[in-house]
């Protein structure tokens, strides 16, 4: 892994390091937000849910805005503004006491990520393609490094936040803000004003929004890819919806949930590069995505069959599900990120990258309501029904591999 980091060059190292720092700064604060809102601030349960939902919408739902701005102005200014807003949002959140202040700060925190995340994801995909063309290293390997860095940040952030909470929620927020100040300083110093290979705004920068969106809605392979990825993301969201219910059903408590999520991060880091390298040598993007979705379906199905067992204190179905979901994540996420540049015009890579996240986030938002009802009604056997979600996604995988830099129709 260290050799790969040395080979990719300073710009990609900056982008990969930024992803690590983003997740450390994020997970120092956000896992403890609900407890702070309901405990220290005494907000009602429905209001806590509303605040968390608004944060998700202001981030995931507005990725398309950050992507479009990246196409127009380049990655550097969008990342810089996003980091400034995230610092301001965390500081505000740390001192917020009233409901309006909490909502405002959380919206600012979410919108900041809607700026810098698609900007960084767009640029890392573009530079991964350039690196592949220059030295022959598969772009999926570079994108795998990006994903591993994010998982490492996810693993480090929560325990660091737990330690910081000994000094209060405000201390965690201020440290989170400090992390983003470091990222901001790094990008101001090291990020070029125009990254190598990035297209100029040109005529596309002066197009109206309707003109810029027209090729998006006509790009059928990309839209099918969005549907396939949405099925994966809706399935992945069961880590936070179905898995906690299953852990409590099996053990009477959710204590094991944190250990299962830590296991998922460690497994991801351990197998990401070798597993994706094995798949990349044997499968196309289409084949890798399809097998990843089938693996998710198998995870749901096998877990449902194992639920009567008492092995591992009743946690065997949860371990099987987390393992299958993590291995599928290893295959799917870098593959989709590597595939998008081949399906779209490079001048609109940011817009399409942001749209992928926004549309899939909308599917998760809408799909979580009936899935929650299904889990309440059907209990453990709902997991067998949930296997249909990734199976449907596998049917949506586009047939076209695309043409690098030119998109598809």
Automatic annotation (TrEMBL):
<dbReference type="Pfam" id="PF07690">
    <property type="entry name" value="MFS_1"/>
</dbReference>
<keyword id="KW-1003">Cell membrane</keyword>
<feature type="transmembrane region" description="Helical">
    <location>
        <begin position="163"/>
        <end position="184"/>
    </location>
</feature>
<keyword id="KW-0813">Transport</keyword>
<dbReference type="InterPro" id="IPR036259">
    <property type="entry name" value="MFS_trans_sf"/>
</dbReference>
<feature type="transmembrane region" description="Helical">
    <location>
        <begin position="12"/>
        <end position="34"/>
    </location>
</feature>
<keyword id="KW-1133">Transmembrane helix</keyword>
<feature type="transmembrane region" description="Helical">
    <location>
        <begin position="381"/>
        <end position="397"/>
    </location>
</feature>
<dbReference type="InterPro" id="IPR050171">
    <property type="entry name" value="MFS_Transporters"/>
</dbReference>
<feature type="transmembrane region" description="Helical">
    <location>
        <begin position="140"/>
        <end position="157"/>
    </location>
</feature>
<dbReference type="InterPro" id="IPR020846">
    <property type="entry name" value="MFS_dom"/>
</dbReference>
<protein>
    <submittedName>
        <fullName>MFS transporter</fullName>
    </submittedName>
</protein>
<feature type="transmembrane region" description="Helical">
    <location>
        <begin position="352"/>
        <end position="375"/>
    </location>
</feature>
<keyword id="KW-0812">Transmembrane</keyword>
<feature type="transmembrane region" description="Helical">
    <location>
        <begin position="319"/>
        <end position="340"/>
    </location>
</feature>
<feature type="transmembrane region" description="Helical">
    <location>
        <begin position="291"/>
        <end position="313"/>
    </location>
</feature>
<keyword id="KW-0472">Membrane</keyword>
<feature type="transmembrane region" description="Helical">
    <location>
        <begin position="101"/>
        <end position="120"/>
    </location>
</feature>
<feature type="transmembrane region" description="Helical">
    <location>
        <begin position="222"/>
        <end position="240"/>
    </location>
</feature>
<dbReference type="InterPro" id="IPR011701">
    <property type="entry name" value="MFS"/>
</dbReference>
<feature type="transmembrane region" description="Helical">
    <location>
        <begin position="78"/>
        <end position="95"/>
    </location>
</feature>
<feature type="transmembrane region" description="Helical">
    <location>
        <begin position="40"/>
        <end position="57"/>
    </location>
</feature>
<feature type="domain" description="Major facilitator superfamily (MFS) profile">
    <location>
        <begin position="1"/>
        <end position="409"/>
    </location>
</feature>
<feature type="transmembrane region" description="Helical">
    <location>
        <begin position="260"/>
        <end position="279"/>
    </location>
</feature>
